[in-house]
Every structure is written in structure tokens, then in C-alpha cells.
Amino acid sequence: MSEPKGGPFLITNTLTRRKEEFKPLRPPHVGLYVCGPTVYSDVHLGNVRSFLTFDVLYRWLTHIGYTVRYVRNITDVGHLVGDVDEGEDKIAKRARLEQLEPMEIVQKYTNGFHDVMRLFNILPPSIEPTATGHLIEQIEMVKRIIASGYGYEANGSVYFDVPKFAEKHAYGELSGRKIDELLANTRDTEGMDEKRSPLDFAIWKKADPVHLMKWPSPWGEGFPGWHLECSAMSTKYLGQTFDIHGGGMDLKFPHHECEIAQSVAADGHAPVRYWMHGNMLTVNGRKMAKSEGNGFTPEELLTGNHKLLEKGYSAMTVRFFMLQCHYASTLDFSNAALQAAEKGLERLMKAMPLLDRLKAAETDEADIAALEQRCHAAMNDDLNSPVLIAELFEGVRIINSAHDGKLKLTAASIDRLAKLMRAMVHDVLGLKDEGTSAKTDDGALDALVGEFIRMRAEAKGRRDFAASDAIRDRLEVLGIRLKDGKEGTTWERA
Ligand SMILES: [Zn+2]
Question: Are the C-beta atoms of 476 and 487 separated by less than 8 Å?
């Protein structure tokens, strides 16, 4: 493939700080790596925004014709409390508090993470590697870093020699930090009995005897440094140089800066061609974080059970709310904005079923090709989802006018409009029609109707149409209307 569908795709490369045309190394293949969660606690909404950003990137790349290998890791060891080199492992600490095995903690919060991703319709990656599953690759990488002269062992730990690396290579390029300033600003004394410079970071840490998570290595029993796993796993699955690396803005330094240094030291060249960073979710201007007490969980959001929430909001409302903001801008969370998003999404979703009911005319009074072109242009311009949404509301206006008989469309235009709207709303923005069921807060009713839908499908499967029709008609009498669509059967209140 020479050109993606619908013209060049521009993305802001945070390494060069420029909007650049995206050209993959080996088209039509694209390698995408995104830093996943550290599975020691429940996911909060700020995390969801970051994963949503790259979900839309993944969906868009796929939509314009690329074959994407999407790797998003699970950090299940090595991430220490305070994101530093000394102290307790976040997962081991949680295991001690909850009196569970570290791997029980990992499983529990990995399951929870997956539930939340499904709830927000965030697609699973192609590969979801874990740090503990790639100890051999990480140990090999430490060996290569030592061999290149940029790693040194001290008392069973191995550190990355940042000042030595910076003599020959650009350290701080991604985050815009300079070695001298970093040195002048550091008050860091942790590990200084072992480190040559306070800027050095651990790539392998010696485990003390009580440490729960440790593995044998050439330097004794220990565990990998937090930054190492992403370098080892991204290059294992995507090659030593790959297309796109994504993550939250807060990971730029030190995490991503260290990833670059590790790869350059171990493999001799920079690992990533395009770096992309999603911005933060703030609440009243402050970063959403557990420590701030403003990091509500998806469950609290759905039920409205949190002091900052006036009511509950559905997962798709929140998804739509987030997509109304460009990923590189901060997004401030407010009840007013969420309620506006709820109304907007409802207007959009109400127009979608009308696409099947439009009557064709002989002439066209709307230019669907131009609308299609503008939708593509919006997303090709650095994933500008707010502009795309504005264009989709132009689509809604056309649908509603045509449905009311105030605007004429030919059969070909209706078909084109339907394809465009469904592709953009469902495939690219990942918005699902939650129907009335999601708004009743009545999970039991939803489950019950779901059971009838399953029974009806079974009846249809054995060609017992009398039974399947009877289920549908009986539900209709009870005020439940079933709708058969491409995605399966959904329901709404009749
Ligand atoms: Zn990472």
C-alpha cells in the first residue's frame, strides 16, 4: 500500500514537537506500543482517557487500511512506590496489605482492568505481554547494556550510567530536559552508596531477603527496573525500531526517556519513530489522582456515588465526553460538560436508526462525498475527534431533515451516508448504542431481557420461528422492543 485511504495521516510527534506525516517502516504493517497499567489497584478515569486515546489511534489506523500489531503491556513487577529506585514494589505492598500472593493481586487487578476496558468499548491489543513473563529478555537486555559500557553493577544491582550515555547521545531529548539542569535540581540521595550519579537509574535491582518477587540473574537474586520491561517487550514484538510508542504525558520523564536510552545503549539505535502522548484528565483544574481524592472509579461514575458527581453517567456518555476534546489537550471534568455530552450522544444515537428508514429521491440536496472527505480530513489531522464529531452532527442534521421530508437524497447518497455514519460512530469513535437499558440503572432487567434474547436466538437457530416470534411479541406487549442489528440484538422500551 502506497498511501493510506483518504490522504496522508498527520500525527504530532512529541519527540520532534512537530506535526508529521505518518509513514510506517513496513506498510501496510504498523507497530504500536502503549504503556499499560501497573496492576496493583483499580483503574480510575484518568487512566481510561489515556487508553481511549490509543484505542482511537488503533481504530483509525485500521480504518485507513493498515494492519496494526498493537502491543500494550501489563506491569506486574518492578514498579516501585513513588516511581523511584528504592523502596517497596507497588504490587508486593498491596499483596501484604490485602494478605494475598502478589500474583493474586496481579490477576485481580488485571481482571478489573479488562472489565473497565470492555465497559468503555476499548479494544484489546494484539499482544498483552507481562513483565514477569519476559524476565529472560530483560536480563539479556541488561547484559547488552553492560557490554556497551553504559551499565554497571554495584552490590548486586545494575545501574544505567546516564552522564556517560549523555556524553555521546541525546539524553533528555523527548522530555526537553538537560543533564546540567537535572543535576542542579536533584536532591535525590537514594541509592547513592551504589550509584555513580544521582541521575543513574536501576535496570536490575538486588532483592533483599524478605522481598516477595525475585528471580535469579547473573548479578544474584533480584528484579528488573521499571523502565526496562517496556524496552524489552516492545522491541521483542515490534522490532528494534518500530513505528509508534504511546503513553500518558506523565510517562515522558523519566519512563520514556529511559526507554530510549536503554534501547540506544543495548541495540545501538533509537527504538521509536513517532512518540505520542495523551494529555491528563483534570478535575477543577487538578490532575485526577487517587492521592488527590478526586480519582473516581468507573463504578462510582456509573452509579453517581461520589461527592463530585451530581448523578451517574453511562460509559458511552463518558467516552463521548472524552472524544469531544483533542487528546493532546487537558480535559477538565465537570457535571455540566457530562450532561451536555449525554444530550449530544442521545441526539447522535437517535439519528442512527433513521438511516434505514430514509426514502430515496431522484435528486440530491446534500453533498455526502464532501461530508465524507471532511470526516477523513479531521481524523487525518492528528486524530481531531472534536472536529469529526462536529461533522457527524452535520450528518445528523442531514438525516433528520431527510427523514422529515425537508431534504432530498438519492438512494446512492443514502447508502453512502449510512456507511459513513456507521463507520465513524461505531468503528472509529467506538460508540455503542446503549439503548434505554443503560439509563435505567437496572442491571437485573438488562440481564433478564438478555436471557430472552439468547432463548430467541436459540429458537431461530433450530428454525423454530413460531417460538422466536412469540418471544419477541410477548416482550413487546410487556413494553420491551427488540432490535436486530449488525451487532446482534439490542432492546429498548417500547
Ligand atoms: Zn512503559
Answer: no
- Give the distance (Å) from ligand 1 centre to CA of residue 267: 18
Residue 489 β-bridge partners:
484
Q: Which of 181-185, 297-301, 405-409, 446-450 shows the lowest per-residue confidence on average (mean pLDDT)? A: 446-450
> In CATH, which of 1.10.3720.10, 3.30.230.10, 1.10.357.140, 3.40.50.620 is domain 10-278?
3.40.50.620
C-alpha of residue 36 to centroid of ligand 1, in Å: 7
Q: Do 449 and 475 form a contact (C-beta atoms < 8 A)?
A: yes
* 323 CA → ligand 1 middle, Å: 24
DSSP β-bridge partners for residue 275: 245
Tens-place pLDDT, residues 283-328: 878 888 766 778 788 888 888 888 888 999 999 999 999 999 999 9
Distance 255 CA to ligand 1 centre (A): 6
Distance 368 CA to ligand 1 centre (A): 42
- Expressed in angstroms and rounded, the spacing between residue 230 Cα and the centre of ligand 1 is 5
Please determine, for residue 18, whether its predicted confidence score (pLDDT) is greater than 80. yes
Q: Give the residue from 40, 47, 465 showing the smallest Cα distance to 297.
A: 47
- Going from the Cα of 178 to the center of ligand 1, the distance in angstroms, rounded, reads 22
Rg (Cα) of the chain, in Å, rounded? 26
Q: What is the pTM of this model?
A: 0.86
Sign of the CA dihedral running 177, 178, 184, 190: positive
CA of 228 to the centre of ligand 1 (A): 8
- 456 CA → ligand 1 middle, Å: 46
Going from the Cα of 423 to the center of ligand 1, the distance in angstroms, rounded, reads 31
Percent of the chain whose predicted confidence (pLDDT) is above 90: 68
Task: Say how many Å lie between the CA of residue 144 and the centre of ligand 1.
Answer: 19
Give yes or no on whether 10-278 and 282-428 have one common fold. no
Each residue's pLDDT tens digit, 144-164: 999 999 999 999 999 999 999
Element (H, E) at 485: strand 480-485
Q: How far is the CA of 226 from the centre of ligand 1 (A)?
A: 8
Q: Of how many residues is the chain composed?
A: 494
Please check whether residue 237 is in contact with residue 25, taking contact to mean a CB–CB distance below 8 angstroms: no
Measure 388 CA to ligand 1 centroid, in angstroms: 30
With respect to CATH, is domain 282-428 assigned 3.40.630.30? no
Q: pLDDT averaged over the chain?
A: 91
**What mean pLDDT do residues 333-342 have?**
93
Q: Where are the domains of the chain?
A: 10-278, 282-428, 437-493
Ligand 1 centre distance from Cα of residue 256 (Å):
7
CA 341, CA 344: separation in Å to the nearest integer? 5
pLDDT (0 to 100) of residue 31: 98
What is the C-alpha separation between 383 and 330, in angstroms, rounded?
15
Using the mean position of ligand 1's atoms as its centre, give its distance from the Cα of residue 344 in Å. Answer: 35
